[in-house]
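Possible race condition, two jobs.
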Amino acid sequence: MTPGKRKVAVVGVSLSDCGRVDDATPYALHAQAARRALADAGMDRSLVDGFASAGLGTLPPVEVAEYLGLRPTWVDSTAVGGSTWEVMAAHAADAIAAGHAEAVLLVYGSTARADIKAGRRTGNLSFGARGPLQFEVPYGHTLIAKYAMAARRHMHAYSTTLEQLASVAVQARANAALNPDAMFRTPITTDDVLSGPMIADPFTKLHCCLRSDGGAAVLLAAEEYVRDCRTAPVWILGTGEHVSHTTMSEWPDFTVSPAAVSGRLAFERAGVRPEEIDVAELYDAFTYMTLVTLEDLGFCAKGEGGQFVEKGRLTVGGELPVNTDGGGLSAQHPGMRGLFLLVEAVRQLRGEAGQRQVRKAGGRLPELAVASGTGGWFCSSGTVVLGRG
């Protein structure tokens, strides 16, 4: 944070009903998450003068703000896929620090699973064939195929194994087993992952995120409001964002994600090092995303991600707890999941995570967390470093 500018804290977080939600609209999930986040903070809706949302409506976030009864004087509708919410949090923190807003509400909601089940939409294999994508889609470059290609490249370059990738899913499920709100909690083994139906080589079904319904909300406020809030503040210490490519032919290195830049910026601005982080919440639409993001954030050297993840480090009781709620692989994934990363990071720092609560030596609560979202097919990244106390 620039000297002389206001500090910014997360003062409220919440999830809407998640998992299988057949009787709600996306707007209703937005509203439910927003109400719960305001209640969590103990802040009245009238104090919210900033609003950020993406992914719903013809004029997001105008339609959602109207539905929630808000008339904000600061808005953001940045849409960069799964990293949207970390990027929005960065923008909101900058706006509050500069005095352009006092309290900003970030909200997301989706009925992706219910819509498919009810036939209101189909499962999309790609983002369309317009613009630069027209040169790839005809050749089978689906969304998942792009991630699979990147994973294969990492396996070729660094001898990363299928078993190592599978261990990411196994550890995510172990964390989900401690989360009563996770969609899938039954433990799985490496063999379960490897023997599943093939989706896109090398990914079998359990290498891929689930599809759920659900919403989330995060409320950020200027430091002056913290003393009147119900919960202990979690401070925004540093943020970073970066975009890399949209066509695979323009991606210089399939083994390097945009988190390599957004993470470096976030850590530098926060004044902390990766080895000081107690909890990491990382976007995990596929197992490879977790592995390569760990490398690019600096938790291990490039090419050593496979060895890093195979030793059980990612579990709640591990050396570096990652995706402590079970992540998109096991907890919930209603689409652009980046906001859920921020919610879980805040809950961990507050000590509100129940059975899955991370503890440091002597039973102490974690002090630093990082949330890093990824959008598209490693096209964009937003990273936020958060601190307690």
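Job #2 (started ~2 s after job #1):
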Amino acid sequence: MTFLPQLRIPATYLRGGTSKGVFFRLTDLPVAAQVPGPARDALLMRVIGSPDPYGKHTDGMGGATSSTSKCVIIAAASVPDHDVDYLYGQVAIDTAFVDWSGNCGNLSTAVGPFAISNGFIDPARIPHNGTCTVRIWQANIGKTILAHVPVVDGQVQEIGDFELDGVTFPAAEIQLEFLDPSDDGDGEGGSMFPTGNLVDTLDVPGVGSFQVTMITAGIPTIFLNAADLGYTGTELQPAINEDKAALTRFEAIRAHGAVRMGLIDSIDQAATRQHTPKVAFVAPAQDYVSSSGKQIAAGDIDLHARALSMGKLHHAMMGTAAVAIGTAAAIPGTLVNRAAGGGEREAVTFGHPSGTLRVGAQAAFVDGQWTVTKAIMSRSARVLMEGAVRVPADTL
């Protein structure tokens, strides 16, 4: 039997925030994968090494976690006054599925540096030394992100002394601005608070009834009180991810919340929308020890937040969920705001499994509803490898 040589596709392996993924220029993809559809999904799954019943991604670039099973496609901007289109695919680990329903806030950090280094930015706009602002169109959700990327000697500055909990080594700081991050237009899910309420009661058959705040800022997220779930809010990954019954309960909560938010029509559809909504739980500030062994005092944070991604507790915090946390914390009456002590605020520092993160949000009550103009946070990014990724020619 004759086998064809592998396809060789230019690609860059990047860390962005606490995630990493394989980045492609749209025009470098095989023609069949340059448009949405089965060929594109098949290619990205093979790049990552999914579906993998062993859950290891041994035969691909993935890391067998939701933070490392990611692909990004960058193209010239399709929207005026932007530099690039950024399309994100969350690749499932053990099933044949790519979820295009949301953004990755962490990998958003790497889009600006990639755009500068790959010729998407007019050289006249790149300072020899200073900061280059890259205007990103997040194509999954139709939103604008501004990435302020440091430049030294005309090149992206990657190394620095900015420390990000959840990332082992320091790097250069990149500030992100998520403009108008709520889904308050005519898209799926409707307003920033899809039910019109800051707090609802969510009934989940066989699991229980819970107070929830359901919000669509950054990424659709269902917030619960940790205490209502029997948790303190200081849990690390093993406490959740090694408890199969807990994971099953969280998925039931996520599915019923997705229906209540108008994201899906029936519980059965939740399996085809694994990336969104997220489920998170919050608690008041208290002393705890992070996954690295770092002692964190209650006085250093405003609240605790833990979030699940693709069915597992995240090792740190998704960037988009951080936007949701910051936005909800800024609005008096939400569960997140209550956990942070109530009142009005424009920034919040929360504890997560790997440490702490500060995020700011500007929210206002206008014409009878809450709106948010932007959310701001700092992350970092670094190229890990560049060249070409290879996949069998029969993938497409």
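Residues 244-260 form the longest helix (17 residues).
Logs attached separately.
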